[in-house]
Amino acid sequence: MTTTATAATAALPAIPSRRLPPLREAIVDATLHALPPESVPVPAAILDVLRSATRILVIGHVPPDGDCVGSAAGLVAALQAMGKDAVAVVDDALPASSRAIDSRGLVQRAADVDGPFDAVVLVDVAQRTRIGGAARFLDGADHVVVIDHHEDVPDAVTFGLGAHQQLTSWVAPDTDAAAVLVAGIACALRPGDDGPFQAAAPMLASSMYTDTLGFRAPGTDVRTLQLFKGVVSDLTRLDALEAALTPSLPPATQAIIDALVVDVGSSRDGGRATFSVSRATWQQLLQTARAVDPKITEGDVRGALCDRLDDLRDRHGVSAMVLDEHAGVRVSIRSIDDGLASRVATRLGGGGHGRAAAAFIVDADASTVGERLAHGFHQEHLAASALLRVGRLSAPAIASSSS
Ligand SMILES: [Mn+2]
After folding, report:
1. Which residues contact 92 (CB under 8 A, 6 or more apart)?
2. pLDDT tens per residue, range 167-219
3. Residue 82 near residue 190 (C-beta atoms within 8 A)
4. pLDDT tens-digit profile of 246-265?
5. CA nearest to 63, candidates 35, 97, 30
6. Which label site among 86, 93, 185, 296 has the fewest CB atoms less than 10 Å from its CB?
7. Residue 126 near residue 149 (C-beta atoms within 8 A)
8. Cα–Cα distance measured from residue 86 to residue 80, given in angstroms and rounded to the nearest whole number
9. Ligand 1: distance of its center to the CA of 239 in Å?
10. pTM for the complete prediction?
11. Distance from Cα 71 to the centre of ligand 1, integer Å
């Protein structure tokens, strides 16, 4: 019985929360120096596993976001640059913005990959239940590594690991993005050789950008911005990065989303804005999009809705969306208050970041979920007078805008 759990929690030292300068100003501000990736303190145990392994699988979470895709693809690019046989899996359809981050097309679905791997690395996630079909690769690995910046503390039991398997984890909850940790790893893998880091850098920069909401999230660490600036050093590069991360939907699809947001404007109450997308509306959004471009994924459309949710959060403090998809009801929650969004999502059986979190609820109808969402906010001590009003846009109301 030699299972060993190495729990390294080498977080960056905390700094006071404050809003950063606008990104475009920060990029051209000569007094704000770029920070080298060597500044991220990487636990030696993580490097030992990665250096000694020959066949490595790197897994991100599902549903995916920019950070897990960029971190997984970036780590694989770094490992390949030092001659490793490394494969990235995110077992879900990638939204267009994430496909743009995975600029080399390194990320695959679990069914397209053959094991076994001697090391399996989870990035941006610390739960076996959040990696889809990639979970089966955990069972044959000598080493399981977790690199994450959320609160979950992994252990060998919940990962279902056997006595011969070693779990090595680096969980740094005060870090803005998993990509910050991966940047440190890529740089430290082979001292004196920045090839692995350079191979990963564009993907990691995009991850940092998305997980900090373009460095607009309150409390974003200035050092993450300085790391980013080491890669995206001028406005030309920033423009290219932002253009790649902003997929365009067909005008008819966008028009429906715009109509939803107009509806939200009238339904906000007490600084909290919510909106509900019925199953019929969701189907209509997908159909209008795919009629123009069959490659548009559900994630692309969901991403456009979430962009609006972010705007609403910035304007109203709290925003939420109840999205009635075919397989269940998705709830997305945003808050300026760090922690509120994740606490409410946890009450609904989900989780996520402090300011952006989600839950996916099967076997429930949207109105019941909407009530549970409102109740969840109340349990978080939001005033009763700010009872959430859910703006509903029925399918007939948008029929004219899609025909
Ligand atoms: Mn992340």
Report:
1. 62, 63, 64, 109, 132, 299
2. 999 999 989 999 999 999 999 999 999 999 999 999 999 999 999 989 987 78
3. yes
4. 777 888 898 888 888 766 65
5. 97
6. 93
7. no
8. 6
9. 22
10. 0.72
11. 9
Residues of the chain with CATH 3.90.1640.10: 5-244
Selection from 224, 189, 226, 190 nearest residue 210 by Cα: 224
Residue 108 tokens, joined: 């695959």
- Expressed in angstroms and rounded, the spacing between residue 401 Cα and the centre of ligand 1 is 36
**Cα 180 to ligand 1 centroid, rounded to whole Å:** 9
- Residue 85 vs residue 267, higher pLDDT: 85
Query: For 158-260, where are the E strands, in sequence order?
Result: 166-171
Ligand 1 center to 67 CA (angstroms): 5
Answer yes or no: are the C-beta atoms of 74 and 203 closer than 8 Å: yes
Fold of 251-402: Diaminopimelate Epimerase; Chain A, domain 1 (3.10.310)
Identify the residue whose tokens are 């600084």.
271
Give the distance (Å) from ligand 1 centre to CA of residue 208. 8
Residue 7, SS3 per DSSP:
strand
What would the two tokens of residue 289 be? 């999009």
| Residues 52 and 166 sit within 8 Å (Cβ to Cβ) | no
Residue 390 has pLDDT above 50, yes or no: no
Expressed in angstroms and rounded, the spacing between residue 387 Cα and the centre of ligand 1 is: 31
CA of 251 to the centre of ligand 1 (A): 30
Distance 25 CA to ligand 1 centre (A): 25
The tokens of 130 are what?
Answer: 């959040």
Cα 104 to Cα 205: distance, rounded to the nearest angstrom: 15
CB 50 within 8 A of CB 145: yes
> Which fold would CATH assign to domain 5-244?
inorganic pyrophosphatase (n-terminal core) (3.90.1640)
Is the pLDDT score of 3 beyond 50?
no
Task: Give kind and range of the element (H or E) at residue 274.
Answer: strand 272-277
Q: Phi and psi at residue 143, in whole multiples of 5°? A: -125, 135
CATH 3.10.310.30 in the chain, residue ranges: 251-402
Quick one: tokens of 260? 């939803």
Query: Euclidean distance between the first and final Cα of the chain, in Å?
Result: 65
CA distance linking residue 241 with residue 222, whole number of Å: 19
Q: Which helix (H) or strand (E) holds 143?
A: strand 143-148
Non-local (6+) Cβ contacts of 353 within 8 A are 150, 211, 341, 342
Cis peptide preceding 202, ω within 30 of 0? no
